[in-house]
Design brief:
The complex is a heterotrimer of chains A (223), B (226) and C (44).
Chain A: H1 8-27, H2 40-68, H3 71-103, H4 111-130, H5 136-166, H6 180-221
Helix pairs in contact in A: 1-6, 2-3, 2-5, 2-6, 3-4, 3-6, 4-5
Chain B: H1 2-21, H2 24-46, H3 51-71, H4 73-76, H5 83-91, H6 94-124, H7 133-158, H8 167-192, H9 195-223
Chain C: H1 2-43
The chains are: A mainly alpha (223), B mainly alpha (226), C mainly alpha (44).
Chain lengths: 223, 226, 44
């Protein structure tokens, strides 16, 4: 497949992104109590969704790597983890922008917030583990760590939720009911972001492939 | 099965003997932990915070930092002269090695805590009149158990990467978050003597410990492969 | 409104920076690859 400006996926993506922004800005109604700030929500939720989707892919690819030991599954896990980090960062950055005007604080220890932050740390640790020289042992160990992380995520979520439900709840995190038009905008955003994930995954996989080709050629030449 | 645990026990004994032959690492870790506890309580004293309330948090953060040093030992000392390969050959099963190293780490951690925890208790001047001591000790034990299990598993990972010492705490801390939460809340409940309210967190600790004690059975083969 | 705009700008900026990073690495690699291929041809 072509990449860059020649790829059809790139142009389709650009087009539906513009449509998406239009839908969010003009089609979806302004929320009554929160006002226009609520519109951050569409990107916020969509990037959080991609962050979780990427985690599932990391898990599946890690299991597959331990089983099949092909370079491609490791590439898939690494690329997915990188993109997951990008989108979780977006979630963490856009969240406070909404929370500050609405909850009057940049951060609370809501289970979702805490889990997202821990998820971000795990992604970063995973990438740090993969970083450096791409030896066979690094890939194998990273796959093991990826599996440990995914096992840990539900533990983090349920323990933080349990903690918060025992304590008095200061703010309910999602007191928003969506109107049908808002739902359209949200599902469109989720769809667009998933597509963006696929696109980024694709180009990252290609660049990883290229990296390995260069490495092999070098080894051949200077052996 | 008894054979499995006999091998585990033999390697565990070997590690302990080895550790007490040259006590310098154990001692420096102990000194580090003591200093950590001192610095924390001193700093809190300066800002005049009600220090007894922060005891659980300070305790577990100190234990975490001390554990980084203590847990890094378990596999690191097998690095020289291909000792790890020899051990693998001798034991025949990689999970034997995991459980031996886990028990060793747990022992070391508990030994360090025997000194550090009472010291912090005294420094911070905890009003322990209502405290439930058995529950407190249970929380410390289960917390250390989980710490040793996850630490051993991840140390098996980082020890194979040359020059990746710093990676160990980075890999370790995100995984420890549920444990930190449960251990701190249990400790807090034990101090004020309200163990009924926090007994649920004890179950969380038990589940966490069991999970990360059994998970290596599946995963540790891949960690030490090759 | 400012928060809303800031949110969108942040998301785009982060995604764009990531894509640009990949692009830069890619072009560097492609250069390297062409040099290497030339070398291989010379050798052959």
């Amino acid at each position: 497949m072509k990449h860059g400006l020649k790829s059809p996926l790139f142009w389709i993506l650009t087009l539906i992104m513009l449509v998406n922004i239009y839908v969010i800005a003009f089609y979806a109604p302004v929320e009554k109590t929160m006002g226009i700030v609520q519109k951050v929500f569409y990107f916020h939720v969509a990037s959080a969704w991609v962050g979780l989707l990427a985690l599932c892919v990391v898990f599946a690819a890690s299991v597959l790597y331990l089983w099949k030991r092909s370079e491609r599954t490791n590439n898939l896990a690494l690329a997915s983890a990188e993109i997951g980090t990008v989108f979780i960062s977006c979630t963490l950055l856009t969240g406070p922008l909404w929370a500050y005007p609405i909850w009057n604080t940049w951060w609370t220890w809501d289970p979702r917030l805490t889990t997202t932050l821990v998820l971000w740390f795990m992604y970063v640790a995973y990438i740090a583990l993969q970083g450096g020289s791409a030896t066979e042992s690094r890939k194998r160990l990273a796959a093991v760590y990826g599996i440990i992380c995914v096992v840990n995520v539900p533990l983090v979520f349920f323990s933080t939720r349990w903690w918060r439900s025992i304590h008095p709840v200061v703010v309910t995190s999602e007191g928003m009911a969506l109107t049908p038009k808002m739902k359209v905008a949200m599902f469109l955003s989720v769809g667009v972001f998933s597509l963006l994930y696929v696109y980024l995954l694709n180009i990252r996989l290609k660049s990883l492939d290229l990296e390995q080709r260069v490495k092999r050629l070098k080894a051949e030449l200077f052996a | 099965m008894p054979k499995f645990w006999r091998k585990v026990f033999l390697i565990y004994l070997k590690d302990l003997k080895d550790e007490f032959r040259t006590t310098d690492h154990l001692l420096s870790t102990l000194v580090f932990g003591t200093m950590l506890v001192f610095v924390f309580s001193f700093a809190l004293q300066l800002v005049e915070i009600g220090t007894a309330q922060v005891f659980p948090a300070v305790l577990w953060v100190s234990i975490f930092f001390m554990a980084i040093l203590a847990l890094q030992r378990s596999f690191a000392k097998e690095q020289d002269n291909g000792a790890l390969d020899a051990l693998l050959l001798a034991s025949g099963d990689r999970s034997i090695l995991f459980y031996a190293k886990f028990l060793f780490s747990l022992t070391v951690l508990l030994l360090l805590e025997v000194v550090v925890v009472p010291l912090l208790w005294i420094f911070i001047d905890v009003a322990g009149a209502k405290a439930n001591l058995w529950f407190f000790l249970g929380a410390v034990f289960l917390g250390s158990w989980g710490l040793a299990a996850v630490g051993t598993l991840l140390n098996g990972i980082t020890v194979q990467l040359p020059g990746a010492r710093l990676l160990f705490p980075i890999l370790l801390f995100p995984i420890l978050i549920p444990l930190l939460l449960g251990a701190i809340l249990c400790t807090q409940g034990a101090l004020v003597g309200e163990i009924k309210a926090v007994s649920g967190w004890m179950y969380l600790l038990v589940i966490y410990d069991l999970l990360f004690t059994i998970l290596p059975l599946l995963l540790f083969d891949y960690v030490l492969e090759g | 409104m400012t928060f809303f705009v800031a949110g969108y700008i942040i998301v785009w900026a982060v995604v764009f920076l990531y894509a640009a990073g990949i692009q830069r690495r890619q072009s560097k690699l492609e250069q390297e690859l062409s040099v290497l291929e030339e070398l291989v041809q010379k050798r052959a």
